[in-house]
Amino acid sequence: MLRAAASRRARAAIRRLSSAAAYPAAVGARRQPPLDEGDWSYYREWWGEDEGPGEGAHTVFRRHSEHGNGVVSVSAYPASLPANDQRTIIERWLQERNERIHPDSTGTDQFKILGYQWRVMRFNDHTRQSVAKVMACYRSLGDAGIYLMQQPHCLAVPYVKSMVSSGLTALPSCSYDIHQAASGQNNMKVLCIGHGGGSLPLFVASKFRGAVVHIVEIDPVVASASIESMGFPSLPVEGLPVESTQPADGNELLWGGIHDRLFLHIADAEDFVANDSNVYDIVFIDAYDGDDIFPRKLWDADGAFLKNLEKKVHPDHGTVVVNLHSDSELSVAGVDDSSRAQSILPLGKHVSQVCRAYKQHFGLAFTAAVPWLCNITLVACRDKAIAAGARLGLSRRDFVLGKLLSKSNMVEHALDLPFPCLQYIKNCFTLVE
């Protein structure tokens, strides 16, 4: 979730953003990354106003939620990228896929791209829950309808890049073979708690051919919004009434099997984890409601959720990544000014408790501050794997950070990431004690 209160920092930081995108790399160690269509310097295209969508936006989805999220809406904004020459390449790719799926199709049945948009999901017309870039296209012949495809390579919000960078770098630091998972030689089990627009599970499924991704979302309205309006694949979900206008062959044409490795569950996370039989390599948790609340049961050290999650994460390299957003580390007891206390984000009073709870259950935990936003990425993993080896006189903190940084370039290469992991891992890196 992206808190609108962070806009003060976003406006002031734009000069720093463009330079951060070109973060310097070790000499001889860096490949030329692909263009990052989700670079934070494009945020002006989709940020809108603090209290709503802003000029140039139009609402494409609006529905009331019965699960604490208030009004769930999706607004659309024009996107400047990709350029026209790239659109021609993508149209050719769509045509080739269509001919493989429909061998009897005529050569005159061409695909045309209507355009690209940013789609922003909000709760109660205020809090930005997620952002995705969506492509719309159609066939030049026939009236099959409009194909809507979320761009899985485009992560528009820094906290998602921070979760990806920190979590996927922790995996090989715990001796997990990320190359084999990326190539599909090994299976990779992933759990995403909190769906939003679906950008994180789509990114992981598209980058890892061996990934099977289970997504748990408590609110069917949020899931419907992602499928109907944010270009997420039309997955069969029990109890989810999706009014998709996507053509019948949309999943096969656009996703080429990626959708077959995505499983969306409408369920309470605590109940799902208690009854699930899978053992996961990595778990991503980003679960906030319309009041900006991260449910206590998801971070209660003595609660059923963490006790069960500990059993469902791989005992050697299992990694859990949590998005925490907070603009304060003040405890409730330490806040004297009531007006100041009210301005603190709800989780801000409990960040340290959350971090210690996850460390207690998984062995080692560290945090990294997300650049430019009121977010912190928490990573918890098995300490025996990541902290193993001689420390060469280094502190435990520096040893763990060095091990993570030594894997960051490899992760970027293996997944062909359009952004550097290094800047997200290093930013205010802290070991949880």
TrEMBL record:
Q: Which UniProt keywords apply?
A: Methyltransferase, Transferase
Name of the protein described by the UniProt record: Uncharacterized protein
Q: Name one GO molecular function term.
A: methyltransferase activity
SUPFAM superfamilies recorded for this chain?
Answer: S-adenosyl-L-methionine-dependent methyltransferases
Q: Name one GO biological process term.
A: methylation
Q: Which Gene3D superfamilies match?
A: Vaccinia Virus protein VP39
As for family, the record states: Belongs to the methyltransferase superfamily.
Task: Kindly indicate whether the keyword Oxidoreductase belongs to this entry.
Answer: no
